[in-house]
Amino acid sequence: MCGAEGAESGKLEATCESEVPTTVTDNHGVASVVMSWSGNNVSSGSQPMSGNGSTYTATLGPFAPFRNLQSTTVTVTVTAQDAVSNQSTRMVDVVVDSGCIV
User: Fold this and answer.
1) How far apart are CA 45 and CA 86, in angstroms?
2) Which structural domains are found in the chain, ordered by start?
3) 19 FRET partner, CA 20 to 30 A, in 11, 36, 38, 82?
4) 5 pLDDT band (50/70/90 cuts)?
């Protein structure tokens, strides 16, 4: 597993697969948090995020190697739902290196 850098600035440099952290709070209580991703030249995916207090994490990827590109941008979407079914969604662009392996 490779690392992620720059989460606080809204940009992650991701290769292979990376743990993505986010902070979620709600006055009704958090019921679920799901991370999904999509982009050109990469496979899309989705998975639930696991929480510890207000910090939730999930693994982005893995991404298969792609040809003729040094890197590509993937849009990561995090959707949180509270106990009374309100939803909030945030998106961030992630740069994925072409050297990824499955």
Assistant:
1) 23
2) 7-97 (2.60.40.10)
3) 82
4) very low
